[in-house]
Write a structure and sequence with these properties.
binds ligand 2U9; 4-stranded antiparallel β-sheet; about 400 residues; alpha+beta; 7-stranded mixed β-sheet
């Protein structure tokens, strides 16, 4: 800096200027207060020179701050850096603020000069910051727009719509048919008490259905239900006749897994209890059901059978769709395909639920859902229904 023999910034961050025409020294903490050691001893001319020098120093300091600020602002690559520059220069402890604080130490003559420059520098710094901020913000918006720009020419993201599982397709159809006949759909626990799964259904202690190889026992009297009849027992305990319900759901039997057996499968059971319910009500209802499910031309037949929870019991077959009763591969030459079991609710079962078999009677049915689904979609391996292979599921 011209006019001074020495002009350096010491380790203590103070700026010391010595010599110059006035031969005096100026020690100043940058932005700090300047202690003028020998002012009082100066003559007018020296004082004038000294003050002029000091002005010059202040101006140079302000110019340096302006320059530094410009560089820092230009170099700011984001709003954060810009804010740091703002704090460094115009902040409470900023370099410019420090100079402005010194204004008090200036003479009345000096203050307007230096003050005007200081304000001009502050204005300049603030304008640069404002411009830079606007510039950074618009660049940020541009980037954002660029990154968010949707190239409408790009093919849309193919939303892979899920499909109803074949089990759900057929189950919902069956539900619609029975709801259409005034039935309610009831649900119940899969982990069931022995009583609701066996006892109440007139399946005595030594009945083969009870033994372990068929049933998943969790404890002596808690098991995984082997049919959804337990739900109907619970319903008969809660509701008094007339009762018209279907109970769809998962059931569990410890079967070996193969093309037609799985430890977990689905059933739909049905129950009607009211006064004067007869076998013909059962046959009529099932005929309507089958014609709704497989078409008006479907034929059904009933074969006597035995279940502990119904008496009389029957199994119902539907005429083979492929050979119309002639016998073919599909119906293993039978001409008929077994679809479900049914019967009149055993009086003991009604009694177990506090319903008087002398007053009320009922019919019940039970079907394996997988069997109906496999026939509907010509699926020859039950495991396909559980393996969640998208190639298989996407066919439906
Ligand atoms: C109550 C009274 C009686 C439900 C019935 C069947 C016949 C039947 C099988 C179909 C295929 C089980 O999944 S499967 O192996 N079920 O044949 N189920 S009558 O009888 C009941 C139900 C509840 C209170």
């Amino acid at each position: 800096m011209s006019g001074f023999a020495e002009d350096s910034v010491g380790k203590d961050g103070c700026r010391t200027v010595k010599g110059g025409e006035s031969g005096c020294s100026l020690k100043q903490k940058l932005g700090g207060t300047a202690e003028v050691s020998v002012l009082s001893s100066l003559g007018t001319r020296e004082l004038f020179i000294f003050i002029r020098e000091r002005n010059k120093a202040m101006k140079e300091l302000l110019e340096k701050i302006r320059q530094d600020a410009k560089e820092a602002i230009d170099a700011a690559s984001d709003l954060e850096a810009l804010n740091a520059a703002r704090v460094r220069f115009s902040g409470k402890k900023g370099e410019l603020t420090a100079v402005l604080k010194q204004m008090g130490g200036l003479s009345a003559e000096e203050r307007p000069i230096v003050g005007q420059l200081a304000n001009e520098v502050r204005g300049d710094i603030e304008n640069r910051i404002a411009e830079k901020e606007a510039d950074l913000k618009s660049k940020a918006t541009e980037m954002k727009l660029k990154s968010e720009k949707i190239d409408v020419t790009l093919p849309g993201k193919k939303e892979v719509l899920g499909k109803k599982h074949p089990l759900s397709i057929v189950l919902d159809e069956i539900k619609e048919i029975f709801i259409g006949m005034g039935f309610d759909v009831v649900q119940g626990p899969e982990v069931e008490y022995d009583y609701y799964n066996f006892e109440a259904l007139n399946i005595p202690k030594d009945h083969p259905a009870r033994d372990t190889q068929d049933t998943f026992y969790i404890t002596d009297n808690i098991l995984l239900r082997t049919q959804t009849s337990s739900v109907q027992i619970r319903t008969m305990e809660e509701r008094k006749p007339p009762i018209r319900i279907i109970a769809p759901g998962r059931v569990y039997r410890s079967d070996a897994v193969d093309a037609t057996h799985s430890p977990l499968f689905h059933q739909v059971e049905g129950l009607v209890v009211d006064k004067g319910i007869t076998m013909s009500d059962l046959k009529g209802t099932l005929e309507v059901f089958i014609k709704a499910l497989y078409g008006e031309e479907s034929q059904v037949r009933f074969r006597p059978h035995h279940f502990p929870f119904t008496e009389p019991s029957a199994e119902m077959d539907v005429m083979c769709f492929a050979c119309h009763g002639e016998g073919c591969r599909l119906c293993k030459g039978e001409g008929w395909i077994e679809l479900l079991g049914c019967g009149m609710v055993h009086p003991k079962v009604l009694e177990n639920c506090g319903i008087d078999p002398e007053v009320y009677s009922g019919f019940a049915l039970g079907l394996g859902l997988e069997r109906v689904v496999m026939r509907r979609f010509n699926i020859d391996d039950m495991r396909l229904l559980y393996e969640n292979d998208q190639r298989f599921l996407n066919q439906f």
